[in-house]
Specification:
This protein is mainly alpha-helical. It contains three helices and no strands.
Length: 89
């Protein structure tokens, strides 16, 4: 991953975290800061996986990469909500 791609993944990750949270049904008892952090990690992971699959640099919008990022964010948000949601009463 190039430096520009890394910084782009961080910026896009902020939006990806919010999208991941919207995809997960129900209420998630996690903070917005954790949601954004999950989004950044999901964006970086999605970019790396898309690069491994060879679909990270296509003409126009990289829809497959974006879909991978949102899926990783949704998994991360659901996992964090499951773990942290039990701790809060």
């Amino acid at each position: 991953m190039e430096i520009q791609g890394f910084f782009t993944a961080i910026i896009i990750g902020l939006v990806i975290g919010a999208l991941g949270r919207l995809v997960v049904p129900g209420k998630q008892n996690i903070s917005i800061v954790l949601t954004l952090a999950i989004g950044v990690l999901a964006a970086i992971l999605g970019t790396l996986v898309a690069g491994g699959l060879g679909v990270d640099d296509t003409a126009g919008i990289d829809w497959i990469e974006l879909l991978l990022q949102v899926v990783f964010a949704a998994i991360g948000v659901a996992g964090a909500a499951a773990v942290l949601g039990r701790r809060r009463s």
